[in-house]
Amino acid sequence: MNIDLSTKTDAQINALIKNHEDQNARDRPIYPLLLEERARRAQAKGRLDFNKSIGLLRDAAIKQTCTSYGQIAEASGVEWSVARHQMNGPNGHLDRLLDLCHSRGLPMLPAICVNKPNLLVGDLDPTALSGFANGARRLGYDFTDDRAFHRSCQEECWAWGREQKA
Prior knowledge:
Number of helices: 8
Shape: globular
Strand content: under 5%
Radius of gyration: 16 Å
């Protein structure tokens, strides 16, 4: 299937993605391309830089630490008061980061992004945990315990980070 994604509207891209997800067709070669295209378009509209965010999360994984939402904003040079409105929700920066990690074969790096008070323990508050879990389920992950799944994703990030250092 050879589709020129540049000719598609945002709504058409979103519909194609949803169709792949609804049909459990995430293994089709076009699916990661659709996720990348949606993120590219979101990048053009937002101020938070996906590549800078992934770089920060990569560095945190290598250091075996968590990072904060504020540090994500800072990496893009965006004030938290502006960034916080772009960060969360089903179409927010963190959700698009899940898409990019999935499409690039990376671990779910947003798992190690938490509220500043939780940097040492790595916990997500209930709303953030729900958003993370919903994003993962949308991408085809199947689990019943959101918190246990989040922890396993964090461990996967840190295992990947140790491999990056080698």
